[in-house]
Amino acid sequence: MEETRRTFSLDTLYEVVHARQTRLAPAPAVNAFMASHRDQAGFTDTAELRSRRRR
What we know:
The protein is an all-alpha fold.
């Protein structure tokens, strides 16, 4: 058991947990923005604008 403690590292696990926490941190802000109805769902799609410009 002691040898396992000396040779086993949790660094990879800590890195994965930190990466997940970093990704999830802005989630409440995104949810609040979407709830405020200031999202751009009603605006014209930028791909559509680009296709119009090419004509």
